[in-house]
Design goal:
Elements lengths: L13 E3 L8 E3 L1 H4 L8 E8 L8 E9 L2 E5 L4 E3 L11 E2 L2 E5 L8 E5 L27 H29 L5
Antiparallel strand pairs: 1-2, 3-4, 4-5, 4-7, 5-6, 8-9
This protein binds calcium ion (2 copies).
The site of one calcium ion has 6 residues, from loops.
Length: about 170
């Protein structure tokens, strides 16, 4: 939603109704996945049968939200994230990959987050930040304040470290 980051927005499911060379997609979100309304800031989606019931489910990764699971209940999707045990693991999730990594017959997932190699961290004991709040409680003013703080930290980091890094690698100039 332009100008209102990080307010949650909707994701959509489009059914392929193409016939006879005429390409037609129909938005069926209200019908099959109303849980996608204002779901968050989705960055990646994966179709994966996490519970091995033969129905492909939907796994979502996004900013300011937990990795979200929508169970396919026979053609309709229900948000069951609250029962997964990771509903409180909100983050800046950006990517998903699936595989049976422990070879036990069920699907496992790797989810990419912002990580710890940035100037930012999730530390509730420090000054309050959007990282410690639920998405629904973040105001635009709070978010802008946070982003300006991040920008100042980033600029300071560059000023302090870029000359040192360039000195270490003179051929990289
Ligand atoms: Ca399934
Ligand atoms: Ca497995």
């Amino acid at each position: 939603m332009p100008g209102q980051y990080p307010k949650p927005v909707s994701a959509h499911i489009y059914r392929n109704d193409s016939k006879g060379g005429q390409v037609v997609f129909t938005d069926v979100t209200d019908e099959v996945a109303p849980a996608l309304k204002n779901i968050g800031l989705v960055c990646d989606a994966l179709v994966s049968d996490y519970d091995n019931d033969g129905w492909p489910d939907l796994v979502l990764a996004g900013e300011w939200m937990p990795v979200t699971f929508l169970k396919n209940t026979g053609g309709k999707f229900e948000n069951i994230t609250a029962s997964t045990g990771i509903a409180n693991h909100t983050g800046w999730w950006t990517s998903l990959a699936a595989g049976d990594f422990d070879n036990d017959g069920d699907m496992d997932y790797i989810a990419g987050n912002l990580g710890t190699k940035t100037p930012f961290s999730r530390q509730a004991s420090k000054n309050p930040s959007p990282f410690t709040q639920k998405t629904s409680t973040i105001t635009t003013a709070t978010m802008l304040s946070f982003l300006f703080t991040c920008l100042r930290v980033w600029i300071r980091w560059k000023e302090e470290n870029i000359p040192r890094i360039c000195a270490m690698m003179p051929s990289a100039r």
